[in-house]
Amino acid sequence: MDIPVFTGTHADLLIIVFHKIITNGHQRLQPLFDCLLTIVVNVSPYLKSLSMVAANKLLHLLEAFSSHWFLFSASQNHHLVFFLLEVFNNIIQYQFDGNCKLVYALIRKRVAFHQLANLPTDSASLQRALQRKKRSPGGISRSGSQETVSMEGSHPAISAEPGTLKTSLAATPGIDKLTEKSQVSEDGTMVSVQQSDPPPGHSAGTSDTESNLGRDTEDLFCTEMGQKQLTSTSSTTPWTPTPEWVLSWKAKLPLQTIMRLLQVLVPQVEKICIDKGLTDESEILRFLQHGTLVGLLPVPHPILIRKYQANAGTAMWFRTYMWGVVYLRNVDPRFGTIRTFGCLTFSGYREGAKE
């Protein structure tokens, strides 16, 4: 891969690579977007110092996934926005200190969050978004962002050769089967959190508050992911978004923590920029590095850990990969012939390898 130069950690590399796979990879990788973002969500509460490159990549994904034509083009696309918002919330709530570069990126790209909060729900806007989708070229990163289409030196993915194996993922298990509510204890270990009623002062109807993030997000995903069809799956009846569908998940967008951060920090950053005539972002980063939001943010929500669950789709991918290894390691490069062994099982493979 053609990876841009950056100074950072393994987490930065993970985000940069996933961003490149999502924005420049083959369209057959789209069923894996949920999986890739789930990995980022799982590690996000522990990311202590994201680089500026990785922070900008995350914000670019949010811009791409929250564009109207992408949000309204498939019934499950909004899940990707929920995952990214959960990443930002985890970092703000659990790792605010040390992540001034991400906070700076959030402030610079604050328009994306305001657009999500004011997402149109009328039929005319939905139809205009779909018409724009028809006019837009393929790929999620082609509109609505200042990010370039591809990195320097990279090449767009080419179509697969005729006759090649076309692997695809089966339907993903419901999110209720993948999610475990956990919280970090004082000694650093993970402790399971039992489902409980909302605390006093929080009504059951306030689904857009952070205190109900876990419950609302899980309920939303349980309902919709259990019924969804993957984008690559053909359907006899084309899916059409409705105002009721948009309203059903728009109210659950976990935006409160991010909006509170922007409400507090944006005026402060603008003031020091005007007072000091700042044009260098390093001064702003130093200001954010020594800032605090203690007592200003909502109560931290429980960390949601989504564990891997074996399913038919991933089993097919692993099986294809392992038998590919078996084949390649048993091809005689001198003659192009295959060394065979009796039973085509993995135990038989080990016996054949010993011979």
Automatic annotation (TrEMBL):
It comes from the Eukaryota. The lineage of its organism: Eukaryota, Metazoa, Chordata, Craniata, Vertebrata. GO terms for cellular component: Golgi medial cisterna; Golgi trans cisterna; membrane. It holds the Pfam family Hid1. This is HID1 domain containing b. It comes from Albula goreensis. Residues 129-166, 179-214 are annotated as: Disordered. Residues 142-151, 185-196 have a biased composition (Polar residues).
